[in-house]
Amino acid sequence: MKLFVAGGAGYVGSHTVRALVDAGHEVVVFDNLSAGHAAAVCAGARLVVGDLEDSLLLDDLFGQSRFDAVLHFAAFIEVGESVVSPLKFYHNNVGNSIRLLSAMERHGVKRMVFSSTCATYGTPEKMPISEDTPQNPQSPYARVKLAVEWAMTDSAAAWGLGCVALRYFNAAGAAPDATIGEDHDPETHLIPNVLKVALGQREHVMIFGTDYPTKDGTCVRDYVHVDDLAAAHLRAIETAKGGEFRAYNAGTGTGSSVREVVEAARKVTGHAIPVIESPRRPGDVPELCADADKIKRELGWSARHTDIESIVASAWAWHKSHPKGFEDRPAKC
After folding, report:
1. Would you give the distance in Å from CA 153 to the centre of its chain?
2. DSSP for 273-295?
3. Of 78, 163, 216, 255, which one's alpha carbon is 20 to 30 angstroms from that of 263?
């Protein structure tokens, strides 16, 4: 297939692009590089630098290339920033998604996979979280993701869009050859920040809350390897059906606590990794863990990397060889 990948120079997007190219698909990456990296784009894909606000450019590309399907990763992702600047998130994450969907409708492109989030569930009453769990988003970031899911649902009914929303849990890890990995600025994710301590780029890691009702008092999250997420996107885009919206949880079904992540990093890196314990942060949920039975049953997908130590090890290989991220060396396919 000929595929248009919005946000394909970002973390999950770049790993997915590599999987798509390896599967024999023709891929055009569309990214404004505000958070993505040109060096992260697989050599087998074509990079077009542009913004989803530019409807004329979208029409030009869709008119020329006659895409079979779209994968959509382009979005702002910082929850805290969404609280401070909600309209920025509505403008970009919702408004630009509507522009993309409108271009698809104009040019008859009727397959799409969307990068959604488990944050649309809010604070669930029970674990693990299934797709039947009521969606109760508690931040602008989560609400805009759900708004795009609604737009896709209504587009499926109105003009035959075949679409899949993948509700990620915590993306983690890096490619096995350590040529692409996680490079955010600022970095807010736990695993890379723990590894920055081992690299000598930070003095310690903060643990926010040690009195949660979890196995060791710290927050528990479901860490899913980024290459497993890439494989889920490949399955989803190849099976999307016209006129149908489907949503799937993408997680391992296994939760790891903050303390377990830190201990895994100590074993992998051989570094002491000092910690400072602090009070809980407002809004942090004690535990988030996926029920991934539906995606296994319907798409035949399940996470291959389920051990937190191996996930951390793949991330460490990337960070150790690229201590300055993509400034160090370009990626290769």
Report:
1. 20
2. --EEEEPPPTT--SEE-B--HHH
3. 78
Cα pseudo-dihedral 11, 54, 62, 7, rounded to 10: 0
List pLDDT tens digits, range 228-282.
999 999 999 999 989 999 999 999 999 999 999 999 999 999 999 999 999 998 7
The residue type of 180 is I
Prediction pTM value: 0.96
List of residues 6+ apart from 72 with CB closer than 8 A? 6, 7, 97, 100, 112, 113, 114, 115
Q: What is the DSSP string of 150-192?
A: HHHHHHHHHH--EEEEEEE-EEE---TTSSS----SS---HHH
Cα 4 versus chain centre, distance: 17
Looking up tokens 């009914």 gives 157
d(CA 126, CA 9): 35
Partnered with residue 207 across adjacent β-strands are 277
Instruction: Give the tens place of pLDDT for each residue, 279-313.
Output: 998 778 899 999 999 999 999 999 999 999 999 99
**87 Cβ partners below 8 Å, 6+ apart?**
none
Residue at token pair 């805009």: 144
Catalytic residue set: 141
Task: Give the single-character DSSP code of 132.
Answer: T
CA 37 to chain centre: 15
In angstroms, the Cα distances linking 122 to 125, 142, 284, 285 are: 10, 8, 10, 8
Residue 300 · residue 235 · CB < 8 Å: yes
Give the chain's domains with CATH numbers: 2-172+224-250 (3.40.50.720), 190-222+254-327 (3.90.25.10)
- The mean pLDDT value for 98-113 works out to 98
Helix pair 226-239, 11-22: axis angle to 10 deg = 60
Q: Going by C-beta distance under 8 Å and a sequence separation of 6 or more, which residues neighbour residue 102?
A: 55
In the prediction, which pLDDT does 317 show? 98
* Alpha-helical runs (H) found in the chain: 11-22, 55-65, 79-84, 86-89, 96-106, 140-159, 190-198, 226-239, 258-269, 293-299, 308-321
